[in-house]
Amino acid sequence: MTREEIIQQVNTVFIDQFEIAAEKLTPEKNLFVDLGLDSLDIVDLLVELHKTFGIALRNNEEVRNVRTLGDVYDFLEKYAREHPEEIRAAK
């Protein structure tokens, strides 16, 4: 899975689940400050990313360090590289 595919799928989650305009979805945006997510939204985000990519994220320690949209992209890109058999493209 390429970084571009990851970005596209993650952005789709933000657009569909949180109704955030596509033009606001840039890597430097802070999930809380800039995109307005709260702790409950983060749980919803983890669920949607699980559905989209087929991986469980809730108990992953690295997820706790995610602060920006770019961090989400980087985390998923690294995960896809390290566990290509686990991650899937959205259908």
> Could you tell me the strand content as a percent range?
under 5%
Low-confidence stretches: none
Mean pLDDT: 91
Named CATH architecture: Orthogonal Bundle
Which H/E pattern describes the elements? HHH
What is the first-to-last residue Cα distance? Answer: 13 Å
| Biggest sheet architecture | none
Q: Quick gist of this model?
A:
With 91 residues, the chain is mainly α.
Explain the overall architecture.
With 91 residues, the protein is mainly α. The chain has a single domain (3-82), classed as ACP-like (Non-ribosomal Peptide Synthetase Peptidyl Carrier Protein, Chain A). The protein is 49% helix and 0% strand. The protein is built from three helices and no strands. It has helices at residues 3-18, 39-53, 69-82. The relative contact order is 0.19. The model has no long low-confidence stretch (mean pLDDT 91).
